[in-house]
Amino acid sequence: MIKRRITAVTIIIATAVFASFFGGAARILFYISLFIPIFSLLYTFYVYMRFRIYQDAESKIIVKGEKTPYFFVLSDEDYIAYTDIRVEFLEDFSTPQNMELCRSYYLIPGEKNEYRTEILCRYRGEYNIGVKSVVVTDLLGLMQIRYPAMCKISMSVLPKITDIEKLSLGPLDDDAKLLRFSHQSSMEPPDCETRKYVYGDSIKLINWKISAKKRELYVRQSSDSQNNSIIFFMDMTQIRCDGYTRIVTEDKIIESALTTANYLVKKNVPVSVIYEQEGLIQDNIDTPEQLKEFYGKCASIRFCGTHSPAELCSIFQDRIMNGFVIFAVSILTYEICQVCESILRLGGDAAVILIGESGAELSDSFDKRIVFKKILLSDEVSDILGGADEH
Prior knowledge:
elongated
């Protein structure tokens, strides 16, 4: 296109010089050469005003990694041909399948073409997919207009729960070490201590005899029930970076929590996931039903927290003694390092899952007993948590 523009400018200058020396008919050549770029500009603007594109997807709610049927329609509802129409797709979070993305389309008057394919949504979140913009080029290739597609397709992409054969997070590497966190361990030997039922407690722990006597739900509480626990802190603070990095980081924090909880539920090990939305939320997960309920929340979760993971941990200080605490964060801070050291001093275990590389250098000062996993934006969560070497 640049070469054609240079050629057009050269012709205009040459005819202008020729007309200035010879006048008369030479001026006609000058006016014709001057009209060519004006005509190209007018044609491009006309097509821009008249061209129509329609698009839609079969499903607006899917799970990350799934494909949704998608189509778009190019329509020439005019009396002139559209010679060079190119569509550009949103490719940061989704990918059209089996399509020539740089293709130019030619439409004759009255023609309407429909193109069907599938779009793969790669990350959890709410974002647009499909055609991002349309590029209109004139007949001679001198002028070009790029404008955003007016019809948007907004997708709600649910997070993915991944099955892994083992969870490579220190104390959880060996299934035998899970016993001190399991229901069997907490219930043997049973004792008579009870407390009021709290939303999220397992139904298996309800003491029906005492509940009937006091006309309120009470649960059995073994002496070590609060000490032998697994707690997963999700970092819900706002991620301040470009849109792509933010979406992918949020996706991997949530997938880390879901993958961990899914593994533990299958091992009959309860886990408490603590995070912040409009308030502090503690989801106790020890059954597939509770995992499904937590999964439903993850679809609409927002990263708008005001408390850092270290602050959340201090709020739940009484829960971390002799337990296992896991952090999934977007940035590793000095405060998190201090909290992990404190957990070790209290007889517990700690692990940090860092999404990205912000603050990763602080891990060099970690106590060797603290498990550190770094998941890059290009990594699969299941590969790293399932045992792949960290970077």
